[in-house]
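Narrative of activities, Objective 1.

The group set out to show that a structural description can be obtained from nothing but a protein's sequence at a throughput compatible with the screening campaign. Below is one input-output pair from the validation batch, recorded exactly as produced.
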Amino acid sequence: MPHHHNLVFMTLVVFGMVLSGLIYISTNQNSCKQQMIEQVFRKSEEKLEDFGLRSSPGSEEKLEDFGLRSSPGFLYNQPSTLVGRTDVVSMTPWLAPIIWEGTFDPTLIDSIYKQHNLTIATTVFALGKYTRFLKDFLESAEEHYFVGFRVHYYLFTDQPEAVPEVKMGENHHLTVRRVPSLDRWQDISMGRMEILEKLIKNELANEADYIFCLDVDAKFYGRWGVESLGRLVGVIHPWFFDYPRDQFSYERRPESQAFIPAGEGDYYYTAAAFGGSLADVHHLTKTCWEQLNIDIANSIEAIWHEESHLNKYFLYTKPSKLLSPEYLWRDINAAVGQVKIIRFSHVAKNNAEVRPNV
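Output recorded for this entry:
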C-alpha cells in the first residue's frame, strides 16, 4: 500500500512538471509573439517619426474619418457601368487608374476631398533664363491648379529678385528659396532630387499632405485638381504614350544605375511632373539621388539624367495612379483624338537660347 501511494505521488509530480513546462512554453511563446508585435509597431512608429508623423492625440480620429464620403443630398450625374471612354485605357495591368477627361466627375470628387482640409506642396525650379517662364506658370496655376484647395508653392531660384509679383488665391502661398547657379542644365536637372529629398524630410512633414514636382517652362490651360492625388503618381510622357516599349528612350547601358533591359518597361514617364504622398515621394527622390551619385562616382550620366532614374524607379515601384498626357502635353500644336483637353503643357522655346552649355 505505501508503495502504491508513492507511485501515485510520483505520477502527480511528473504530471505537474510537464504541465508547468507546457505553461512555461506557452507563456514564453506568447511573450515572444508580444515582443515581435511590439517590435513591428516600434518600427512603424520610427518610420512615421522620420517624417514627423508619429501618432498624436486626435490623429486616430482624423485617420478614421478619412474616406471617400459623399454628403447626403449632394446631387451629381449618375455613374454608368456601360458608357464611358472606349478610345483609351483607364486602368493599368496592376489596377492603378489612368486619369483621362471623362473618367471622373470633378464636382463629386471636389466635394469629397474638400472635407479633409488637404495641403498640396508644389515645387518648381527657375534658374538662369528659366525665370522668364515664372509669370505664365504662376498666373496660369492660380487659374487652374487645385482651385479651392490649400497650395504651398516652393520656388527654387538663383535670382529671387526676378520672381514676378503674382496675386495668390485664397489659401495659396509662395515661398522663394535661393539656390546656387549652375553651369550645366543637366546638373540643374539632376540636382532637383537632392533638394526635394531634403525639403520633404526637413520641412514638409507637418506642412503638407501631398507634393507635386513640376517644370517651370510649362503653362496650365485646364483643370488640374484632386483627381490627380494618389500615393505615388506618375505622368505618362506625351511623346511616348502610343509607342511600343522597345522605342522608349530608357537608359540601355548596364553600367548605369538607371539601366532597364530590353523587353522590360510599362510606360515612359516624364520627369516634368510627378508626385504623391510625402513618404512615397521622399523615398523616390532619395533613391534616385543615391543612384545618380553612384553613376557620378562611376563617371556615367544616364541618357535623360534624372528622368532615366525616375523611369527605373517607377518600373519596379509601380505608381498607384497615372496621369494621362493631358497633364503634360507637347510644346507644339499637334493634336490627337485621345487628348480631349490639355491641362498642362510645355511652352514653345529655343532650348539653345535658354539652356546653359547647349
